[in-house]
Amino acid sequence: MSLLDRLRRLRGVVPDDDIGGRTQALVVHGNEFGYDPFGMSRDSIRTAATVARWLYRHYFRAEAFGIEHVPAAGPLILVANHSGQLPFDGLVIGSACFLEMKQPRLVRAMVEFFVPTVPFASYLFSRWGQITGTPENCRRLLGAGEAVLVFPEGARGISKPFSKRYQLAEFGKGFMRLALEMGAPVVPVAVIGAEEQAPAVNVKPLAKLLRLPALPVVPYPPFVAPLPLPVKYRLYFGEPMTFTGDPDDDDEVLDDKVKQVKNAIQSMIHVGLREREHVFW
Amino acid sequence: MSSGKPKKVVITGISGRFGKIVARRLHHELGWQIVGLDRRPMQGRPKDIEHHQVDLRSKKARDVFRAGDVDALVHLGVMHDPRARAAELYSWNITGTTKLLEYCQAYRVPKVVLLSSANVYGPRPDNPQFLTEDAPLLAAQRFPQMRDLVEIDHLVSTFLWRARETETVILRPVHIVGPVHNAPSNYLRIERPPTLLGFDPMVQLVHVEDVAEAIAGALGPGRRGIYNIVGPGEVPLSAILRELRREPRMIPHPVAKPILGLAFRLGISSFPVAELDFIRYVCMVDGRRATAELGFRPRFGLRETIHAVDELA
Q: Which domains are assigned to chain A?
């Protein structure tokens, strides 16, 4: 049997009721071919959720605190700290909202612009509901009452070296402009665990040479963090924060509001770090 | 514009399959009097359609407008021949369009409709999923072949703002499919079309008859502006090929580029290498403005639109 056939059979395996039912319960604005305007399909979600659930429950043994703070419907911006070289934090937050909420919600993460240039990731991410991180895309989804996940630290966050763990990098302000414009509540999320999943040092000269924002290298083979360590994930969802004001205000005015969200995340990180006994369990 | 006499519309590029479809629609359904302008002869021309086999840049083309009784110009005559020399294409497209606009201004043509394309925005990895009409036209940055199309669009947009006494409409339809010979229809008719391994962008198609409908709508009084024209929805390229029962050949992008480049140079393929980006990245547009202001809605559904490529006998 060829590898392709085996993969096909794997795709044919019916996921258990939990995932099937939850996938069915998701709100998908699909057309007659089953795709939503961003290329997401329920069938792809179903397959991906099976793998995601294994990672969530068994590999990362994730725990979600305060998931009841996530509104069941309506536009929503989840804002979280970003770390760990590979975006497993996004996967775990998405899985938590899919698996732990009473009415499962599909979280649509804003991904980096280079993702559409990477073979397979380019279309798989969109099948799973992830979107290219442009303000227009975010606006459209919030307008349709969907939940969007933003990492305002962006590449600065995900590629930060081990020495900077749990120190929030500078936050972008785009999410606040969108929250104000679309009247969407912001739910701050603290992710504990991801910051240790791929301890890296930043090789600055090499990064400069390759014109990358950062070049994180893990001190063990194969040095580029293809697989995260099996750290334990703990997610803390804060209470929804609503903001009012002019989305076109100057950066300084927005800064105060952004800082409120950043502080909320930082204080949940402190609580989380205090409460945990070990990185791996 | 007198009420009793039928209105007179000049259509450039009338001799192509698409031009004929537009002419038929405007003639039969709106009762307009059609005057064709094309450097090619018009085969199977109905007797009541006037045709001038001329170059747009020539004096004869001006003569068509000189009487001052032209009620509208529909400009479809953008030449997109990947094999023609760039300088020749440029002169034909840009000089030709400039001349046409000159005639329209000199002889007070009250309506100009340009058929541009949603491709002028260009397929790019950082495109928002749906581009609106005010997005920059970046296609020419990556494809020199698209430069003419982008420049014509710019020329006519400038005309839109400058010549206030003329109602100018620019239509930017997504990939037009149907019994026509354009790149998307030709591509979808290939039995085993090449696709890029690991890429499967969302694509929008619109039926050729729906575009004709949009042109008819744009000719209505009071309509002016720039409009994206979107078909019945968006689907991944792979779903379209599955629906058509094609068997795609998946080629890794680093290999596809040199192969396609060679095939193009040898004359085996008619697709320039740069067009690979159309099966790699999204270039989709938001059609809400045309729906709201032109009342445009596609009549053909997704499946009908996809299968329209097979209508070519």
A: 13-274 (3.40.1130)
Cross-chain residue pair B130–A117, CB shorter than 8 Å: no
Mean local confidence (pLDDT), A212-225? 70
Structure tokens at A42: 């329920």
**Residues B120/B137, Cβ–Cβ less than 8 Å:** yes
Task: Spell out the residues 6+ positions from residue B158 whose beta carbon is closer than 8 angstroms to its own.
Answer: none
pLDDT digits (tens, 9 = 90+) for A106-156: 999 998 888 888 889 899 999 999 999 899 999 999 999 999 999 999 888
Q: Residue A12: its pLDDT value, please?
A: 47
Q: Dihedral sign, CA of B210, B214, B219, B220?
A: positive
What domains are defined for chain B?
8-178+204-231+285-299 (3.40.50.720)
Interface contact A126, partner B, CB < 8 A: yes
Q: Give the CB-side neighbour count of residue B221, counting CA atoms within 13 A.
A: 3
Contact flag B198-A116 (C-beta cutoff 8 Å): no
**B202, A126: Cβ pair inside 8 Å?**
yes
Residue A4's pLDDT is: 58
Cα B241 to Cα B247: distance, rounded to the nearest angstrom: 7
- Give the nearest chain B residue to A35 (CA atoms): B235
Whether residues A39 and B236 touch (CB distance < 8 A) is answered with: yes
Q: Averaged over A238-264, what is the pLDDT?
A: 93
User: What is the C-alpha separation between B185 and B194, in angstroms, rounded?
Assistant: 14
Query: What tens digit of pLDDT does each residue of B240-256 get?
Result: 999 999 999 999 988 98
- DSSP-derived secondary structure letter, A50: H
CA torsion sign for B144, B148, B153, B158 is: positive
